[in-house]
TrEMBL record:
Superkingdom per UniProt: Eukaryota
Organism from which the protein derives: Malassezia sympodialis (strain ATCC 42132)
Gene Ontology terms: cellular component: membrane
Record-given protein name: PhoD-like phosphatase domain-containing protein
Residue ranges of domain PhoD-like phosphatase in the record: 108-380, 400-555
CDD domains: MPP_PhoD (cd07389)
Gene3D superfamilies given in the database record: PhoD-like phosphatase
Length: 577
């Protein structure tokens, strides 16, 4: 019988491995208390590492650090506890059995041998949009169950969340929020600012906490989060749909900024197990790129519309592969993905990687290579376009709830290939090519967001074998593990656009294409739509020690709601340049 009332947890988070071969991870537990049941002492985590089912050291224990307390309207306290786990890596793989005494069952996770490169899984978009009927897909669990089955066969060492681990869009539907977003936008545009009612923070916090408890506290996803250490990066839905890509008067409105700031605060709590006030990260002082015990953390410049700096991460995934997760949301604006200070800090950290690193995987929320939608972008931003006028009148769902712009426009503006971001995108690709050449590393981009699977590729315009080409970089897209894919008509158009040649990187001598990854459809029949697959999916990554290649396997749901998957594979070649 549990002595603790557990809201959420245990959740696992992997940080990195240090130069001494110490593996660093954290556990999060959220417990509920009344005034009469507040604990006098923190809970205790006990853990023991095992190899071949025999302990490799004595049992260890650590007390929980109180990160934050959420007080609800029923005068209950919900306490966030963080526990630190440190494991000495060995020449053999280990499993680690752990429990929070009197609160959680005994579960385990897997730590590879020190010389071994991680086997990992990656996914994105782990919630449903408001317009989707979950029952049509048998709910959120089918593809999570597929992931857990694969984990049982051959354990994953890390679970990479590529953004939209939760959908917080419904925060705008909470009492008084939506109508006051419009009012706050109008006041900002007119140069007026009425102080925010303190109750808005209470309403926003209540929704965010409740939504996280609902999504992270049960089901197959929660089981995965307790067994496979998470490595997460946010995207817009972790805050609210399209945050950072709306007009300046809306983004500067106090209420919308509050939504973004509280969303980011809860993202740090539930997904990174961090509280900047506790961990010593201050927006006013970001000169130290890693001021906390989170060794993978890279603090960048201040946020554009939120009271937080960017939180990017550079994580050890084995001696030959590292993972860079770039925070592309905290500084996002209509004409900016990240500011120069963030790029400088993450690239400097990458330049200091050990010489043993052969692969650098760069996680970006939104695909950096994707079929262009320029014609649609131009059409929908033209307020004189008669189609837009008619559609706004005839279909209320055609416009969003925030500023009356076309609903899909925030998604188009979000893309790296949009007219607002293309120059920044090209500069970033150029910087990563320089990094690849100087460090002799293979770069691979990893993204989600679009609710479809696919793979772009950058390469030299001259005919060079991929393994000898430092410009050769996959741009893998895995999305969504839960959410619905776009309509078939959209997938069809996107596949047609995928065949077009782009010359925006011609000045770098770089070719950009989409790979015909889906030669056969989900029923093993020849497929006309070879580039983009509209079905739920997630991805595995296996390092081939014999060839120094990374093998990516996209697992795509064969039939809607079935949870049965067909696998499509692509490899990132060894860097032989």
């Amino acid at each position: 019988m549990s002595n603790w009332h557990v809201d959420v947890g245990p959740l696992l988070r992997y940080d990195t491995v240090d130069s001494r071969g110490i593996y660093h991870a954290f556990v999060l537990l959220v417990t509920q208390h009344t005034a009469a049941t507040m604990p006098r002492a923190p809970p205790v985590l006990q853990y023991v590492p095992l190899a071949d089912q025999k302990p490799t050291g004595p049992p260890m224990q650590t007390r929980g650090l109180q990160l934050w307390v959420y007080g609800d309207e029923a005068n209950r306290a919900h306490v966030f506890w963080r526990f630190k786990i440190e494991i000495q890596m060995l020449r053999v793989p280990q499993s680690v059995a752990y429990t929070v005494v009197g609160a959680t069952d005994l579960v385990d996770f897997h730590v590879p041998a020190y010389h071994q490169n991680f086997r990992w899984a990656t996914y994105s978009c782990a919630g449903f949009s408001a317009s989707v009927k979950p029952d049509d897909f048998n709910g959120p669990d089918p593809m999570w169950n597929d992931l857990l089955i694969e984990h049982a066969k051959n354990p994953f060492h890390a679970l990479v969340g590529g953004g939209d681990q939760i959908y917080n869009d419904q925060v705008a539907k909470q009492e008084g929020i939506q109508q006051n977003i419009f009012m706050a936008k109008k006041e900002t545009a007119e140069g007026e600012e009425i102080p925010l009612d303190p109750r808005y923070k209470q309403v926003i916090d209540r929704f965010l906490f409740t939504n996280y408890v609902k999504c992270f506290g049960s089901g197959a996803m929660a089981r995965a989060f307790s067994r496979i250490p998470m490595v997460n990066m946010l995207d817009d839905h972790d805050l609210i749909d399209g945050f950072g890509t709306y007009a300046e008067d809306l983004m500067q409105s106090p209420l919308f900024k509050l939504i973004g700031s509280r969303g980011y605060f809860f993202y740090l709590l539930f997904q990174q197990f961090m509280n900047d006030e506790v961990d010593g990260v201050l927006n006013e002082n970001t000169t130290n790129p890693n001021p906390t015990q989170f060794r993978s953390l890279i603090i960048g410049g201040p946020g554009s519309y939120i009271a937080f700096p960017t939180h990017s991460f550079l994580t050890w995934m084995g001696p030959k592969q590292h993972l860079l997760l770039v925070d592309c949301r905290a500084q996002r604006k209509m004409d900016q993905v990240c500011a120069e200070d963030t790029y400088e800090r993450v690239l400097e950290a990458c330049m200091n990687l050990p010489e043993t690193v052969r692969h650098l995987i760069i996680q970006l929320g939104v695909p950096i290579a994707y079929p262009r939608m320029v014609f649609l972008e131009k059409m929908l931003t033209n307020r004189f376009n008669p189609f837009v006028k008619v559609a706004k009148t005839a279909s209320p769902g055609f416009t969003n709830n925030f500023d009356g712009s076309v609903e899909i426009l925030d998604d188009l503006n979000d893309h790296w290939c949009s007219q607002h971001h293309k120059k920044e995108r090209n500069q970033f690709i150029e910087q990563t090519q320089t990094l690849a050449q100087e460090k002799k590393m293979r770069i691979t981009f990893l993204s989600g967001d679009v609710h479809a699977a696919g793979c772009g590729v950058f390469s030299s315009e001259t005919d060079i074998r991929p393994e000898q080409d430092y410009k050769y970089a996959l741009a893998l897209i895995t999305s969504a593990i839960v959410n619905a894919p776009p309509p078939p008509a959209v997938i069809k158009v996107t596949n047609k656009l995928a065949t077009k040649q782009h010359r925006s990187l011609h000045y770098l001598g770089t070719r950009e294409t989409m790979l015909p990854l889906f030669e056969f459809d989900l029923n093993d029949k020849p497929n006309k739509q070879k580039y983009i697959m509209g079905a739920r999916n997630w991805c595995t990554a296996d390092f081939d020690e014999s060839t120094n290649e990374i093998l990516f396997h996209l697992r795509v749901e064969k039939k809607q709601g079935s949870g049965r998957a067909k696998e499509y594979s692509v490899k990132a070649p060894a860097p032989l340049f």
